[in-house]
Amino acid sequence: MNTRIHRKHLAVATGLAAVAAIATTAVSAASGPQPLAADPGPFDGTNPANASIPTYDYDDPSRSFVVQAHFGMHGATVNDVSVGMGRSRSHLGDPSLLELRLRSATDAPLGSIDAWDPRWVFEETAGGGERMEIRPGPGMLITPFDADAESMVVYDVEAGEALTTVDLAPAIREYCLDHPEDAQCVSADLAVTASEATGTGFSVVGETTQVEVATTVENLGPDGPVDGVVDEVVTAPAGVTVTPTGSTWDADGLAVGAPREHASSYDVTCEEPGVHTVTVESTIEPALAKVADPDASNNAGTAELEIECAIPVKLDIKPGSDRNPVNVNEATIPMAVLTTEAGEFGLPLAFDATTVKVAGLRIGDRDALVTSASGVPERHGKVHLEDVTPKDGDVDAMLHAAGREIPVTASTTELCVRGTTTSGLSFFGCDVVDVVP
Ligand SMILES: [Ca+2]
Ligand SMILES: [Ca+2]
Ligand SMILES: [Ca+2]
């Protein structure tokens, strides 16, 4: 039984090697062709024995990626990634146990570094020798910093497999936000400066209307041009569904002082009658991790649009006639909004026509009614309640429109009605007409 097992991590051995390398350089410089006496150089005569303690150079631009992970036999779990303010030791001469493959934001290869595998440890053998063993456990990878390297594939060369892909972007983002002066970092205040939703804002249950979202983004500087990515997230209240539920678009090459506009379109389908407010929040952020946005408070903009979902109703122009002939000078066109059960005439909801309010009720062309509720009022200013032909026992709402005031023209093919019920819900329905001279 071996009672004196002794192991040391290769990193320690490597660290010592690095120190040895520095020492070697110093010796060779000191033993150069010029003797010290002939070239005093910058030596100021300070006695090393009582010289002040050297101060650490906090402005040393050197920095490194420090990745802490738990290494298993076939994978690694990353615990922490940071940008360390210090020089990464050289990987020159490291064996090809791990290959650390750096990738850009677009996954383009930026080169690779051979590195020791933190899982390898030396173990003393019974005969006094040493052998290398692979042991899962925690380990640290330190590589030179490169602000363009947004991920690092840790590849186990011997096993021929990738252990993990390390996301370096959050660490670069944090570092560049803290160090805008770093030559590798870029500082650009991206902002959403306007966001507006437009649309007709009116539809019926079971049908779809569009919402257009116009968003303006801008690079407020100081650096540019830079690429931004805008994320739009839709919030749909109960009563409507919106597709898609969001979108992402690129604002590439944003130069300082050159705003960029973009339009997105969403389909809003009414599920329940009533007024529903759809919200779209647009948020911009730099595409690259090395681009720091010093002010996050202006990165989002919100656009809202109210969608009025009406109850679709059955309108019967000239009850008793299927052809519905009207002429362009007709003073009074009779029409009825029918009381219906859900499913009747293919309508999704039941409708009680006795709840029709005459106030605000308008009759006319579909587009004018949908976009601006423009049409003519009920000609007599009242709703005539009666069970129209064909009589089915349900009381309907008889209305009359002044056709020449709409006006009905030779090209009119349908007339519609838009109004509200006594409970405040909208309704909408259309019927065909056959315009006769
Ligand atoms: Ca900003
Ligand atoms: Ca009819
Ligand atoms: Ca009826």
Q: How would you describe this protein?
A:
With 437 residues, this protein is mainly beta. It folds into three domains: 1-14 and 61-184, Immunoglobulin-like, CATH 2.60.40; 186-310, Immunoglobulins (Immunoglobulin-like), CATH 2.60.40; 313-436, Immunoglobulin-like (Sandwich), CATH 2.60.40. The protein is 9% helix and 44% strand. The strands form seven sheets. Strands 11, 13, 15, 17, 19, 23, 26 and 27 form an eight-stranded mixed beta sheet that branches. The protein has a five-stranded mixed beta sheet with strand order 14-16-12-10-18. It has a four-stranded antiparallel beta sheet with strand order 4-3-8-9. β1 and β2 form a beta hairpin. The structure holds calcium ion (CA) (3 copies). One calcium ion binds next to β10. Keywords: Signal. This is CARDB domain-containing protein.
Question: Which structural traits does this protein have?
Answer:
437 residues, mainly beta, Immunoglobulin-like, 3 domains, eight-stranded mixed β-sheet, five-stranded mixed β-sheet, 28 strands, disordered N terminus, binds calcium ion, CARDB domain-containing protein, signal
